[in-house]
Design brief:
Radius of gyration: 26 Å
Number of strands: 21
Number of domains: 3
Strand order of the largest sheet: 20-19-18-17-16-15-14-21
Oligomer: single chain
Distance between the termini: 41 Å
Structural class: alpha/beta
Number of helices: 25
Helix content: 25-40%
Strand content: 5-15%
CATH architecture of the largest domain: Alpha-Beta Barrel
CATH topology of the largest domain: TIM Barrel
């Protein structure tokens, strides 16, 4: 990479080994499964494009993948994350060795992605644009069944036209902002970047993908910059008009893709930040890597947002492909003395407040999907928690870096990203309420539908998708031990059937309450974990389990239980409780919740206000707890410690109300349908997140008193944001009853809108101000 000295503009240097790999023998390098190793880096957006393409097309068995670490020195990208610091297949320490094998005496830039011929150890090509195209068109024989067509012939020209603008103004545009050495060059790049992003946002306000109705290479090109935007480009590269999370359309679009297998699972925000902040010492001389933003948490209002995502998706060669570059190591950025004072020296462009609607003025009532893209598969993600993707996150499950980078190539503008950092001239603005326009875009019935989490039969994927398509509910619940819907990416059909990204929930507590143990192995019960594991070990168990759930399309886990209980193991709570001691239960529940969130799944604490010392099993009939005053001494202590302003899980988790009669609180009503219980949670414990009921459809504490339609309306009117039922039953009559309740004033429009906003936020689709 270089900078043009006269104008102060950043100019990307030429590629060093620009060859192609073809199926017809027209190039020196033929397509052959097992012959090549794709070398990339998690930090690099250019490499990310090739890694995503390989993953989407199912080429993992045909082309192996080597990952260079986020750090490099003057010699090039290096494999410092591999055992012994050597790539296990190529046997090299530095990628430069493969370039020098291809071109003896090579003195050009060493970039990723690079396709390396394993037999000779030589780089076959580092032309990422040709590489992406060839993976899609020349390797078809090795594509997985049902692989997406990333270059559909009908849209080829449109993809190319969009791709040119995305490359010059967005992919490369952020680098032009970050490495400009004159105010004029910076402002020119800054304006071009935001004009292009505004145009893309407007385009996406009425469609899910950039071209056609499936993912194409245009989406891959744009996404690799969006996913890194808040992490590095906003602050590190001074592209600071808005954060991505402040742009409803682009944020939702990015989260939607994040949840798609092949997108979010290729991202490592820790490595992204290490690279950009550690290697670009001309921009960040100290090498200090920022701690924020935390992709798992954020502020109380934004914490529920996490990255999460969407949809699965070969054609004649396009006339042109956007030009050059790649993550480049081994060169210094040259600047004129005096051009760049410490930390940049370029005056930051004005940062205007974020709008509450799309910058293009998408009015309420416009395309629903335009405002509510997000985690199609979570938690994605799904983040959601598309993560969101919001979420999320950026992605739920990444770890902030606290130590300085050890080695770096000074001044090298290689690829990567990190989190948005405020500079002295970039004052943080109050976050916009992006939920208001999203709620306004929904009809009254659809707002009510968002508040339902309905049972589906996991053995009948087609039937489950039909329920979602007809009812447009906000979430589905998978009970029992059937797993067909959790295999073979079948969950995608449910997401595709929903106009608004769907919450997909299970109960996965461990022990006797598990849903994927037959698929991914058994995990201990809560009580066993607390007795035999440290909280740190429980966090790791939960993180791994959440990753398994997320990979199967689950976005919510209705866990952990924070009930304190000394009941026998097999009783209704029993070994589902970590401990009868409130402090132990709190400590382990927090550990589980944080691990679960790190794994990309939204969690729910249960069963408020405490089921662990109740008189019986609410599945079998009415249940009474000790009086409220006694609950406050033990059962309610975990909630007091974990939720509410300033508490560890504030804004990061939901709460489930049990069907419990509480003397001194509810009289003879179950808590799930009694306003007093919701007031207790909202007012005394100051919980502002999403609140849901326990199962209204299959637990006799409710079904012995009310039909499902009446129970649902009572719960929504009492204060539940989400009414849960495991029954596979027609949803229309339930929505009819809820609409009637709204018309009669049992549910107020204001409360309905507020609850809908909390539901959308919990799925990572928006943020309340």
């Amino acid at each position: 990479m270089a900078t043009e000295q006269d104008s102060g503009e950043f100019v990307r240097g030429p590629l060093g080994v620009a060859e192609r790999i073809t199926a017809d023998g027209s190039s020196p390098w033929p397509v052959a499964a097992g012959r090549y190793r794709l070398v990339g880096a998690r930090a690099c957006p250019w490499a990310n494009r090739a890694i995503i393409t390989r993953r989407l097309l199912g080429l993992e068995d045909a082309i192996s993948l080597g990952i260079a670490g986020p750090l490099h020195d003057e010699r090039s990208w290096r494999f410092h994350l591999d055992p012994g610091g050597v790539d296990p297949v190529l046997g090299i320490e530095y990628l430069r060795e493969a370039y020098e094998t291809a071109v003896p005496g090579y003195d050009g830039g060493v970039t990723v992605p690079a396709m390396v011929d394993v037999g000779s150890g030589a780089v076959a090509t580092n032309s990422y644009a040709d590489l992406e195209y060839d993976l899609a068109t020349q390797w078809r024989e090795h594509h997985r069944p049902g692989a997406p067509d990333l270059w559909p012939a009908a849209h080829r020209d449109e993809i190319e036209s969009l791709g040119e603008g995305i490359f010059h103004d967005v992919n490369n545009g952020v680098y032009k902002c970050g490495f400009a050495t004159s105010q004029r060059a910076y402002e020119r790049a800054y304006r071009a970047l935001w004009e292009r992003l505004d145009a893309l946002s407007e385009r996406l306000s009425t469609r899910r993908f950039l071209v056609g109705d499936t993912i194409t290479q245009a989406d891959v090109r744009l996404w690799v910059t969006l996913v890194r935007f808040d992490a590095v480009y906003h602050g590190h590269f001074k592209a600071n008009r808005h954060k991505l999370t402040e742009l409803p359309v682009l944020w939702a679009y990015a989260r939607d893709l994040y949840g798609t297998p092949g997108f979010g699972d290729t991202i490592d925000f820790e490595q992204i930040k290490q690279h950009y902040y550690g290697v670009h010492t001309s921009v960040n001389p100290s090498g200090v890597v920022p701690l924020g933003p935390d992709p798992r948490a954020g502020s109380p209002r934004t914490a529920a947002r996490s990255w999460a995502g969407a949809r699965s998706v070969t054609a004649p060669r396009p006339a042109r492909r956007p030009g050059g570059g790649g993550g480049r190591a081994g060169r210094r950025l040259t600047t004129r003395p005096g051009d760049r004072p410490p930390l940049g020296g370029v005056v930051l462009a004005d940062r205007t407040p974020a709008p509450t609607v799309s910058p293009h003025g998408r009015a309420p009532g416009a395309s629903r999907w335009s405002a509510m893209r997000g985690p199609t598969i979570r938690r994605r993600r799904g983040v959601g928690l598309l993560t969101a993707a919001v979420v999320g996150a950026l992605a739920a499950g990444t770890v902030a870096v606290t130590t300085p980078v050890l080695t770096a190539n000074r001044g090298d503008p290689g690829p990567g990203s990190a989190e948005p950092q405020a500079t002295p001239a970039s004052v943080e603005q109050a976050p916009a309420d992006t939920c208001v326009p999203m709620v306004a875009a929904l009809s009254t019935r659809d707002r009510l539908a968002q508040r339902l989490m309905v049972g589906v039969d996991a053995s009948d994927p087609a039937g489950a998708a039909a329920i979602v398509k007809e009812s447009q509910v906000g979430g589905v619940f998978l009970g029992g031990n059937e797993t067909a819907l959790l295999q073979g990416n079948r969950m995608q059909a449910l997401q595709d059937a929903s106009r608004t990204p769907l919450a997909v929930a299970v109960d996965e507590e461990g022990g006797r309450v598990q849903r994927i143990d037959d698929l991914d192995g058994d995990i201990p019960s809560a009580r066993e974990m607390a007795a035999s594991r440290t909280p740190e070990q429980v966090t790791e168990i939960a993180r791994e389990r959440a990753g398994q759930l997320k990979a199967r399309g689950v976005t919510w886990n209705l866990a952990p239980s924070v009930d304190t209980s000394d009941q026998p193991r097999s009783s209704v709570i029993g070994d589902r409780s970590f401990s009868d001691d409130p402090e132990t239960a709190t400590r382990y529940a927090q550990a589980w919740a944080e691990g679960q969130q790190a794994g990309g799944v939204y969690g729910v604490l249960k069963h408020f206000p405490g089921h662990g010392h109740s008189s019986g099993d609410s599945h079998k009939g009415s249940v009474t707890t000790p009086p409220l005053a006694e609950l406050e001494q033990k059962d309610l202590k975990p909630y007091a410690a974990l939720v509410g302003p300033g508490k560890p899980l504030d804004g990061r988790i939901g709460v489930m109300l049990g069907h419990l009669e509480v003397p001194g609180l509810t009289g003879g009503n179950p808590t799930s349908v009694d306003p007093a219980a919701y007031r207790l949670l909202r007012e005394q414990y100051r919980f502002d997140g999403v609140v849901m009921t326990d199962d209204l459809g299959a637990m006799k504490a409710i079904t012995d008193r009310f039909g499902l339609a009446e129970a649902t309306t009572r719960a929504l009117s009492a204060g539940a944001d989400i009414a849960l039922f495991s029954n596979v039953t027609p949803v229309g009559p339930l929505l009819d009853a809820a609409e009637k309740g709204l018309a009669e004033g049992r549910i107020t429009p204001e409360a309905n809108d507020a609850a809908t906003a909390r539901v959308l936020e919990s799925k990572g689709l928006c943020s309340r101000s």
